[in-house]
Amino acid sequence: MGRTVVEKIIEGIADAKGVEPENLNIMLENYVSTDAIRALKSHQGDSWRLQFETPKHVVEVAGNETVLIDGTEV
What we know:
This protein is α+β, with helices and mostly antiparallel strands. Helices cover 28% and strands 23% of the residues. It is built from 2 helices and 4 strands; from the N terminus they run ααββββ. It is globular and about 35 Å long.
């Protein structure tokens, strides 16, 4: 089974910070609703894009499950 979009975001931020995901010192839910991401993912179409910021990082998620951390795809 593949990674969920939320898992990809967490792993991408952890990679950008140079830590393992379990050692990530931020709560993603403090910056974006993970329920909203899941709801967007289940939306009929894939022509949506969501962008939000965490400390020192810009995260972009697209309807085709592309995740960019600071402009780099994860």
